[in-house]
Amino acid sequence: MMEKSIKIDLGGVLFQIDEDAYKILKKYLGDIDARLRFTQGGAETMEDIEARIAEIFRSLGGQAGVVSKENVEQVISTIGSPETFEAEGGMKGSDASSYSRPVRKKMYRNEDDKIIGGVCGGMGAYLDIEPVWMRVLFIIFTCFFGVGFLVYVGLWIALPVARSEAQKKEMYGDNYHSSLHNPSGNFTPSGSSAGSATGASASNVANAFNEVFRAIARVIFVIVRVFLIITGVTLVLGAFFILVAVIMVFFFKYPGYFSTDSFGINLFYFPNFLNYIVNPAAAPWIVALSFLVIGLPLFALIYWGVKMIFWFKARDGVVSLIMLLIWVGSIAALTLILFNEGISYSDTAKSLTSSILPHSTKNLYVVSGHSISALKFDKEISLPEESYDIYFTDDNKNLYIGTRLHLNRSDDKLTRIDIVRRSTGRSRIDATSKAESLIYNYTVSGDTVFLDDYFTVPTGSRWSVDNVTVNISVPEGTKVHFDNATERMYLKPHYENENWMERSEDVTGNDKASADNHTWIMTEEGLEMQRTEEKK
User: Fold this and answer.
1) Of 66, 203, 294, 525, which has the fewest beta carbons less than 10 angstroms from its beta carbon?
2) Same domain, yes or no, for 336 and 456?
């Protein structure tokens, strides 16, 4: 069976050394180090010895080939046995004994002998046992409800990595020697690796276990890398496209308009819309803070995705902490602004205006006055289930809101028109003032009522969940005649859960003829349409 070889750094020179030769050299240098460790100039002496050994190895051709057991024995005979290195000028008596105490050991993760995170390598060095047996124990306990896996992850997070010489000496204790515990960062054979503090020869079973673990670790590593690359690409592409969409919505006049027939809403420039519903001075802050709240996590996802793809390490802790603080601060500031703006909608109030027709009539004509279609509006937000439509125009930045029409049976044989205006505000008084300021026009001429199908807010005012409802009460038996526009006004709120446009076409027909073809009559049950055959 071929002897295994190990890479060692000796006096700044790399050598390949047989496993048996490695053990002898390790013990030899360890014994010398134990004699010189606490003497004045001991560290310099050790460096000189290592440099001399490296020089002898080079003269024997050790750099070109593999240092053998015979080469090590020849070095020992040339330099002398450890007993010849007495601590000349060293401390005597009680002083010497006080400085010869063992190094206090501490548990670390061992990167010089790791398969996954170096936890088992560090525990093996700390406990002076083969790391392979620790790996076997973790696998066994992992079979019991994943306990081993959880403990391993916890130790991986909790234990620091032994990087410096001082940390490695704490991990290995008195058996530590820097030239033999730093095999160029490569995996070393079990039983002669850096993680073996005892230096004892590992059994063939232990070697087999280690090789199996390393093979499994390599397979897992490949699977994890593929998964991370796929996840990283998904994060980068998904976050990038969402970020582009956010930038377009927040800072450019996109994504344009969507058909209200399909979506019931037109999308338009977000900051312009904010000017209608919040204080114009707060709108830029809301835009900027909203972008930070949404954009910073997207930037983070892109960055993490790139790290997953290219598997690089970066000292980004400070930057990440600063970005996190900015994100949390943006959320807090945005919450405060929105809360302050939301108070403007905390109370609701209404204003009622009533008028009575001068004389009772058996026929009432309800026809349209000013129509929203004449305004040539540019954008619309429609909430079909609420029978609520808001229309925007780009020329004067005003907004117009559709009115609702209800017809009820009158109890006093009079025809009455009630205009109910509703609005919200910081208080009931504020809401009442806003409701009274809503602008809605209608006129009465004889037995004809002319109704606008929209109302508006005063110039310079913002939207406050305003609405206007026209309630017309007529005596039982009164015939009501609509035109197409007012009939649709009446029908729409009565079919909130249906397609009111299709329903109104069933009643009025697809033609644009006068609504005189459709007469409604007030009954005890409410307003009902009088069919053509019934009128005959």
Assistant:
1) 525
2) no
